Amino acid sequence: MLPVEFEAIWWKPDSMMTIYDAAGGAAGMTRLATAWHVRAIADDVVAHAFSHGFREDHIERLADYWTEALGGPALYSSKFGSESFVVREHSGHGEHVEMDDRAIDCFDQALVDVGLDADPRLAKVLHDYFEWATRRPMAEYPRDVADVPDGLAFPRWSWDGLVAAAG
Question: How far is CA 100 from the centre of its chain?
Answer without folding.
Answer: 13
